[in-house]
Amino acid sequence: MSKVRVVFFASLRERIGHSEYMTELDAPLSIAELKQQLASELDKGQALLEKGIQASIDFEFARDADLVLKDVNEVAFFPPVTGG
Amino acid sequence: MILVQENDFDVDALYKSLLKANKTGAVAMFVGLVRQFADDPEEDSSFELEHYPGMTEHNLQAIVNEAYSRWPLLDVCVVHRVGRLKVDDQIVFVGVSASHRAEAFQACDFIMDYLKSRAAFWKKESKGNESHWVEANIKDEKSLERWSK
């Protein structure tokens, strides 16, 4: 079992009401599975399951099928970026 | 040079930093500004830029590295502001120096296109007591198709 830090940004952070959260990884989970786990652990976690929510694993953009392995430091979830 | 900062930037100083003696033949630069987004310009409006410290710099470096791999460039400078901004403020600077104009123009355009869709920044607009997060523009994602090899 290992712990992973999960961070949220922008509108998603406001809706979930947390900027940071620690969760347990029993085994490597895909990004899609981690979203499901967080949706049940966090009060307002359902917002993670909406279409268009993006993710990163240790600062690299990640897709739903990408795996969060034990040595991962930080996973982030956020809406599509709007810089520039 | 890649900078993510709250402070404003001086375009003239950034331009000079891109010049390499006896080498530079072309410099292309882009400056993005906060457009007026209120219907009534008299209305009290402001703008907040959030970023993901660490990831944003990592994303920008990856975009700049990709530009270097595609074109022969002398130097690249990207500055992006975060925090509270007002209408007409400068937000972003992208500057590229090269021997010839074609690569300078193309690399500057490429970096700006990728920055819009692949760098961790989020904009929030406020008018009076209301505020809302800016929605991503599908045109920005579409624009990346121009660069597929």
TrEMBL record, chain A:
Pfam families: ThiS. This is Molybdopterin synthase subunit MoaD.
UniProtKB/TrEMBL annotation, chain B:
It holds the Pfam family MoaE. Its EC number is 2.8.1.12. It comes from the Bacteria. One of its GO terms (molecular function) is molybdopterin synthase activity. Gene3D superfamilies: Molybdopterin biosynthesis MoaE subunit (3.90.1170.40). Keywords: Molybdenum cofactor biosynthesis. It is an enzyme of class 2 (transferase). GO terms for biological process: Mo-molybdopterin cofactor biosynthetic process. The keyword Iron-sulfur does not apply. CDD domains: MoaE. It catalyses: 2 [molybdopterin-synthase sulfur-carrier protein]-C-terminal-Gly-aminoethanethioate + cyclic pyranopterin phosphate + H2O = molybdopterin + 2 [molybdopterin-synthase sulfur-carrier protein]-C-terminal Gly-Gly + 2 H(+). Pathway: Cofactor biosynthesis; molybdopterin biosynthesis. Heterotetramer of 2 MoaD subunits and 2 MoaE subunits. Also stable as homodimer. The enzyme changes between these two forms during catalysis. Belongs to the MoaE family. PANTHER family: MOLYBDOPTERIN SYNTHASE RELATED. This is Molybdopterin synthase catalytic subunit. It comes from Marinomonas alcarazii.
